[in-house]
Specification:
mainly alpha; about 140 residues; 6 helices
Length: about 140
């Protein structure tokens, strides 16, 4: 039951963020659904670095497909759909541990957070590069 509440909150937060950044109305629902689905994958994979990577691959793939179907840029969808995966709590805890003088815990938490951020960046970049490699060239038969 708790995961259902998390996913509902994720959907609402992602949709609200898309409205906040003035995303076109016909893309708000799609971005919120992609963000919620990716967060669900992240929860299913036990919130590990691999979970960040797989969930970000899902975001990148879905956003590239939706961008082509809706004739929009993929960045429009990715910039909103990625919000639920951003490890803000890890960043906050790292800074808190530093201010408390608990440097060992700060390094541990900071390393895990940095790995998650790198996994997100790698997955989104890899997806974008994959789709660009197969993009139809203008003027080609």
């Amino acid at each position: 039951m708790n995961w259902m509440i998390e996913l509902l909150a994720c959907f609402v937060a992602t949709a609200a963020f898309s409205v906040l950044v003035h995303q076109p109305r016909n893309t708000v629902l799609v971005s919120a659904l992609i963000g919620t689905a990716s967060y669900g994958v992240y929860l299913l994979l036990n919130q590990t670095t691999i979970a960040y990577f797989v969930a970000s691959l899902l975001i990148g793939t879905c956003c590239e497909i939706c961008a082509r179907l809706m004739k929009r840029t993929a960045t429009l969808f990715v910039s909103v759909a990625i919000i639920p995966l951003v490890p803000g709590v890890g960043l906050y805890r790292t800074m808190r541990f530093i201010t408390e003088g608990n440097y060992l815990q700060a390094v541990t938490t900071g390393s895990a957070t940095l790995l998650g951020l790198c996994a997100i960046a790698l997955a989104v970049t890899a997806t974008s590069m994959f789709f660009r490699a197969f993009k139809k060239k203008e003027g080609a038969c």
